[in-house]
Design brief:
It contains eleven helices and 23 strands. By secondary structure, it is of the alpha/beta class. An eight-stranded mixed beta sheet has the order 6-22-23-21-20-17-18-19, with helices on both faces. Strands 8-10-9-7-11-12-13-14 form an eight-stranded mixed beta sheet, with helices on one face. The protein has a five-stranded mixed β-barrel with strand order 1-2-3-5-4.
Length: about 475
């Protein structure tokens, strides 16, 4: 083995034995462990170590000695450069295997939890073209892959409209075709890029906080064939974005809504900002089973509609028979609560984004439901003893937090409330394991059910049923 004191060094014949939750192959040789870009379990490779993250060596494949039998040709030409589909070169069957393993490893190794029943992961029938939401970034600095530079071809350094490069917040790669969303979105995005550059419309400079166009967002409805296009701009003047919309409208009748959002902040978050409508409704209407949902640009809604229904069916199963009161925490636009509405006399949702709560009430009206109520604000402030006294102690708590998991004060309050059942939906098994380890003071993990919501990526959803001892 090479000397490890060197900054860059080669380690020969490293077997890749697993995948990480960031989609890297995990190589192990004797006592040496390295995380390797684009490597899949079963590969035997020479690794070039390029650095460390939290004292763990990171590397790239220097030489492929023996490829894994589970390795497949990546569909996307941008694979490995954009920050998205990290495991597209792994067969889908094995993607499911390692995602299921990721869930159980997190709960058992991080949470040190005993699991009553581990159910097999629910895979996706369509591992491509499944996303109902996608967001692109405008950048005045285009990032070009090294192999393209090496060809010596002429490059127009005019800016990029695409995805962030893996590991770099300030670098954007021009995307010609993405396979995770509707194909028509590729055509629209490419025309947006052509038109804006041809007319010398300024792209955003993340370092200088200058330029006009910042982000391009699409949301589509699987149930009603609606497609909303939203452009985020860095200035109050809507002249340029309206020019863009007027250019696109006769070309793409598939677009049913045109909106823009003014974001003059230094960060890309926009959940609290108000969309402005050029034409069409200010939302799309999605369907899950018999229920309809109004989804605005700033609202949370599961990005894989087909798998969302399967996910919510699992939640229904874990909730069980009809009960008195359900709390729906981190409720977004109220989708889970509405899907469960016939399982409780009363459902109370809490969500920190005000516009999502507005959508939740609109969704209840849309479905003729009156026994659901919603609160907007930080859960650690809202979920107090007085709140429980007012709304009633829940028989079941359903919680679906963001990737960061639940705040410690929220977990502490759940322990005080002592609901007989907690159904914990998570898109991050590591933070879910951390939270459940705290809840294990009073709760047992009865069942876990992984669901693949995001094929080709390393992300996995998991539903855990906890019961009070």
């Amino acid at each position: 083995m090479a000397r490890r004191k060197q900054k860059h060094y080669i380690v020969e014949q490293v077997p890749i034995v697993d995948t990480s939750n960031q989609g890297k192959g995990i190589g192990r040789k004797d006592d040496f462990v390295v995380f390797v870009d684009k490597a899949v379990p079963g590969d035997l490779v020479d690794v070039k170590v390029t650095g460390k993250v939290k004292k763990v060596p990171m590397g790239v494949i220097e030489k492929m000695i023996q490829p894994s039998e589970d390795r497949v040709e990546a569909t996307c030409e941008h694979f490995g450069d954009c920050g998205g589909c990290k495991i597209q070169n792994l067969s889908y069957e094995k993607q499911l295997f390692y995602k299921e393993k990721q869930v159980t490893d997190a709960l058992q190794r991080i949470g040190h939890l005993e699991i009553g029943e581990s159910r097999a992961i629910v895979g996706c029938d369509s591992p491509f073209n499944y996303r109902n939401k996608v967001e692109f970034t405008f950048s005045n600095r285009e990032w070009v892959p090294a192999d393209q530079l090496a060809k010596g071809e002429k490059i127009d350094w005019n800016g990029a409209l695409g995805f962030h490069v893996a590991r770099f917040y300030d670098k954007v790669i021009e995307i010609k075709e993405c396979h995770l969303h509707l194909p028509i979105i590729n055509e629209i995005r490419n025309e947006v890029g052509r038109f804006t550059l041809a007319n010398e419309m300024a792209y955003y400079d993340i370092r200088e906080h200058t330029g006009y166009f910042r982000n391009l967002l699409f949301r589509n409805s699987e149930g009603s064939d609606e497609l909303a296009m939203v452009v985020l701009v860095n200035e109050e003047d809507p002249t340029l974005v309206k020019q863009l919309f007027a250019h696109l409208e006769p070309m793409f009748p598939q677009i049913t809504s045109y909106m823009w959002i003014v974001n003059t902040k230094y960060n890309d978050s926009y959940s609290e900002l108000e969309p402005q409508v050029w034409k069409g409704p200010s939302f799309i209407t999605e369907h899950l089973g018999e229920w309809k949902f109004r989804v605005s640009p700033t609202s949370f809604f599961q990005t894989n509609t087909t798998q969302a229904k399967r996910l919510y069916d699992i939640v229904r199963d874990f909730v069980g028979e009809k009960t008195q009161t359900i709390y729906d925490l981190y409720c977004g636009a109220g989708s889970i609560g509405i899907y469960l509405n016939d399982l409780a006399e009363k459902i109370v949702g809490v969500e920190y984004v005000e516009s999502s709560v507005q959508d939740a009430y609109a969704n209840c009206k849309l479905n003729g439901l009156e026994h659901l109520s919603f609160y907007a604000g930080n859960l650690k402030d809202i979920l107090s003893e007085s709140f429980v006294e007012k709304e009633g102690r829940p028989n079941v708590i359903v919680t679906d937090p963001p990737r960061a998991g639940m705040d410690a004060p929220v977990v502490a309050q759940l322990l005080k409330i002592e609901a007989p059942r907690i159904v914990y939906v998570s898109c991050n098994p590591a933070t879910q394991a951390r939270d459940i380890a705290l809840l294990a003071e009073k709760y047992d993990v009865k069942i876990i059910q992984p669901v693949d919501m995001f094929p080709q990526t390393s992300h996995v959803e998991n539903v855990a049923l906890l019961e009070l001892r």
